[in-house]
Amino acid sequence: MQGGWDGLNIFDESQHKMTNAGCIKEAAVELTGPTIVAYQKGIDAFSDKSVSNIQLLAVPGLREQTVTNYGIKQSEERFDTMYLMDIAEYDKDNNVIMDDVTKPSIENTITEFESRQLDTSFAAAYFPDIVLNKSNGGSLKVPPTVGILGVISRMDRDQRPWYAPAGITSGLMNANGVAFAINRDQLNEIYDADINPIYIPSGRFNVHVFGQKTLLKEPSALDRINVRRLLIYVRREVKNIANRFLFEPNREQTLRNFAAAVEPILQRVQNEGGVERYKVQIDSSTTTQNDVENNVIRGKIYLQPTKSIEFISLDFEVRNSID
Length: 323
Description:
Helix content is 37%, strand content 13%. By secondary structure, it is an alpha/beta fold. Strands 1-2-3-7-8 form a five-stranded mixed β-sheet, sandwiched between helices. It has a three-stranded antiparallel β-sheet with strand order 5-4-6. Strands 9-10 form a two-stranded antiparallel sheet. α8 packs antiparallel against α9. The protein starts with 12 loop residues before the first helix and ends in an 18-residue tail after the last strand. The mean pLDDT is 89.
C-alpha cells in the first residue's frame, strides 16, 4: 500500500541506497542484513567460474569488513582472480567514517586495518580516495579502486599482467587529484602496513600508485601483485591447453604433446620479461600408473618470476681531477 517491499530498508536512506554506511549499520547490529547480503550475492554471481570469466574483482566504495572479507574469500576460492579492496577509514577519534566530508586519520586507519590480520596473495588494498573531473564540469571523489581498475586495464593493454601496476609511468592514474594528500613519511607508513599508497610526488601534478603489495604476510614472491597476476595468467593459459586434451588417450605420447603445447606459453612469458627461468614437467614421473587408472594427467610447472625494481640505492663519490 505504501510502495511495496523490495528487501531494502526504506526507513534508512543509507540502507535503501545500499551504501557503505548502510552496511556498517547492519553489521553493527547483527553482522548481516539485506544490504550486506545483497552485495554478497552480487559477489557470488562472479564466483562461479562456469558463468563468469574475470581476473579482477572490486566493489568500489564498499569498505565494510563483512563485505570485503567475503570478496577476499571468494577470490581465494576461485584461485584465478584478485580482489581490489577499498579500506575502511577512521577519524581522529577512531570512529569509522561513513560520509564524504570527514578527514581520515592515517594513524587510526592503519591501526584498524592491521588489526584485521589479513593474510592473502589474492587481494590488494589502496588508500586514499582520488578525485576525477566530471564531464559536465566540477569534480567527483571516488574510491581508489575506481582508478586502480583503470591502471591495471591499461597495463594489460599496453604491456603484460606481470608488469608492476605502480610507479611514475606504469602507476599513472587518470585522476586530477587525491582526496587526502599524504607526505613521504606517511607514504612509507601506509606501505609498511601492506596498503598501496596513492600519491602525488613532489614537483609533479599527476596522481600515481606507489605500491604493488598483496596482503600476504610472509615474505614471498607472491607478496607482489605482478607475481600473483603472472600465475593467474599462466594458470588460465595452461587450463585452455589442458581442455584440448580431455578424453585423449592417457599414454606417453599424449603427455609429450601436452608438455610441448605448454612450452611456448612459458617461453613467450620469459621472452617478455615475466620469468627468469621455468621448467615444464608432464611425463610418467608426474603421472603414475595409478593416475592412468583413474583417468588423470598430472604435471608440474616451475617458475622463477622476474622481480620488479622497488627501491633504488645510489652511492655518489667525488674525486679530485688529478686522480
